[in-house]
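Quick one:
INPUT:
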């Protein structure tokens, strides 16, 4: 079992960096000296990073006046906007003024059409098709 003293000592020795950097040996590193060049990130850690980022995005979206209509949407439509914000950042999502206006007004078909005809759709392919259809129908598209 790993003892608390060892954890504390390693944290003190390694120091924490939330951004990727090159260590003195030239390896891409993050966190408390986690070497990304020689180690894979375990899936449970990637899942935790995903969940933490989603919480951060949702909190920030709730603060944005331009997105105050989101709480009126059903969950699948809310998730489309959260998914897009995860992909392009909240500031990137806010550039979709006409699409957001259509969504706020309940014109989901028009919003979905705008999504499908965008440069973003050309870049992300099936993701855009799925999310546009989810916006159009108000139902999750990836149900098994």
């Amino acid at each position: 079992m790993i003892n608390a003293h060892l954890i504390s000592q390693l944290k003190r020795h390694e120091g924490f960096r939330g951004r990727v950097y090159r260590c003195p040996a030239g390896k891409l590193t993050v966190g408390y000296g986690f070497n990304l060049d020689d180690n894979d990130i375990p899936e449970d850690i990637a899942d935790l990073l995903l969940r933490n980022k989603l919480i951060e995005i949702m909190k920030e979206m709730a603060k944005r006046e331009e997105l105050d209509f989101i709480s009126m949407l059903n969950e699948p439509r809310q998730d489309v906007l959260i998914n897009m914000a995860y992909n392009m950042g909240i500031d990137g999502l806010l550039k979709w003024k006409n699409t957001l206006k259509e969504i706020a007004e309940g014109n989901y078909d028009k919003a979905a059409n705008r999504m499908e005809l965008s440069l973003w759709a050309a870049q992300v392919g099936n993701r855009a098709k799925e999310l546009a259809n989810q916006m159009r129908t108000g139902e999750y598209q990836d149900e098994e």
